Amino acid sequence: MFSSRGLPTIPNADIRFAKGDVRPAHEEMRKAANGRNLWIVGGGDLVGQFHDAGLLDELIVQVASVTLGAGKPLLPRNITTPPLRLTAVQMFGPGFAELRYEVPKGR
Questions:
Q1: Can you tell me the distance from the alpha carbon of 26 to that of 40, in angstroms, rounded to the nearest whole number?
Q2: Does 4 reside within a domain?
Q3: Range of the domain at 37
Q4: pLDDT at residue 107 tops 70
Q5: pTM for the full model?
Q6: For the domain that residue 74 is a member of, what is the CATH number?
Q7: Which helix (H) or strand (E) holds 20?
Q8: Which of 32, 45, 65, 95 gives a 20 to 30 Å CA spacing to 15?
Q9: What does the DSSP 8-state code read for residue 95?
Q10: Contact 58/38 with Cβ under 8 angstroms?
């Protein structure tokens, strides 16, 4: 878990704390996952750091049918080169959708 502050541990839980550069933590996560998928959750800035380091394969975005008049962008950076490639759209109930994008390599 990435955190800029010290957090208490939970007995019998395998939770590891990290801060700073995402690359060493990603390598540890990859080893611990042993071939399974990694899931990054924690806000746009954290996801953006993994993208900047070239460590994302896919971006999954879930949207709801609410229009906001203002707000923060999904990611605090533009991901335009190369452009994301939409690979799947799935509807959940009457007002939610999940969009899956491939993150092309070779920036």
A1: 10
A2: no
A3: 22-102
A4: no
A5: 0.78
A6: 3.40.430.10
A7: none
A8: 45
A9: T
A10: no
